[in-house]
Amino acid sequence: MSPAIVLLAVRALLALSLYAFLAVLLVILWRDLRHAGAGQALKAAHLIRLGSAEARPAAFGLGDVNLVGRASDNTIAIDDATVSAHHARLSYQAGRWILEDLGSRNGTRVNGVGVEGMLVVTYGDNLQFGEVQLGLRTGPVAAAMAEDRPAGEA
Question: Which residues pair with 101 in a beta bridge?
């Protein structure tokens, strides 16, 4: 075998190794980006207070698990007599929001329907804890609050 053929074979082997390394690197980066994209929805999610102008502005950023209630140790503390101390749990699981009433006295509703057990909720739903209404929204908080502003408000 001539040295030229051996050199050509070594070059081809090195080129294939480089392409294999780049392919593995691209697959790892693609998985990371896909995983990070799923978390973007969570980072942009929030609850905004609906209803009277006196109650505004109120927006609550959401994490993986959010406890809603009147007690100060809740993720979302709502100072209202109709809200139980530990009223409900809103959590992000497997790419969807799950709402669970925690045995509250005045109940939890989604779009006017009572919640018993666990319920999947989506962006745009209106959640009611006692007499307090909050909207599950995504995107910029200011834009979502402007959309939900009652007619006649500036």
Answer: 88
Residues 6+ away with beta carbon under 8 Å from 65: 75, 89, 90, 91, 92
Q: What is the pLDDT of residue 154?
A: 45
3-state secondary structure 27-89: HHHHHHHHHHHHHHHHHCCEEEECCCHHHCCCEEECCCEEEEECCCCCCEECCCCCCCCCCEE
Below-50 pLDDT ranges, the chain = 56, 151-154
Largest separation between any pair of C-alpha atoms in the chain: 91
Half-sphere exposure (Cβ direction) of 35: Cα atoms closer than 13 Å = 6
Q: Dihedral of CA 47/53/55/56: which sign?
A: positive
